[in-house]
Amino acid sequence: MEAVQEAVNALKRVTRNHEKLKVKVTEQKAINDAYQSQLESLRRERKILQANMSSLEWTCGKCNKGWTYFNSSCYYFSFTNSSERRETWMGSRADCVRRGADLIVIDHPSEQSYVSHISESLRRGYQFWEHSLWIGVTDMKQEGTWVWVNNATESEQRYWITGETNNYHQDKKCGATLYSSAKPWETRFSANCNSHLHWICEMAPK
């Protein structure tokens, strides 16, 4: 009987230790997840800083303060100046014009990659419109024909999110972009021009 009791007590001790170990594992996983989240945040911040450092090397005498230089153009990302301010498409374009610029015209794969890379840092909200950016393309003049603010007709359908540039929602006349980790090349979508989003301005260096 003593042997049986000792075995029972030993089993209880092992069970208690096992439960304690499970709690520690759960706590450690929570800590690791928090560290991983911080690491991802730091990586995004590092990318922004690296881009800004690269820009600073080239912007002296070329771009205004608060703008970044890339591939022979200067860019203004509104969310870097104010994370709260958002504008309609027309309002954002008016802001760009006041700055001597216009909404961005994305006409090269490297520029598409650059915008996707920078806009990744904006991913803080749960709803996609919270981290979307107005770009300079609309189909206001003719439904389904997307034209950039420099009067060039959009031809690269591969950059649009699957199912976009359709005629299902005729109130969605203005183009916007957002970062997608799953499909970083499919970033463009049509939105209601009266929605309030961040935006990107572009101008030639001075």
Automatic annotation (TrEMBL):
The keyword 4Fe-4S does not apply. It holds the Pfam family Lectin_C. Keywords: Coiled coil. SMART domains: CLECT. Residues 4-59 form a coiled coil. Residues 70-202 form the C-type lectin domain. InterPro entries: C-type_lectin-like, C-type_lectin-like/link_sf, C-type_lectin/snaclec_domain, CTDL_fold. It comes from the Eukaryota. This is C-type lectin domain family 4 member M-like. It comes from Hippocampus comes (Tiger tail seahorse).
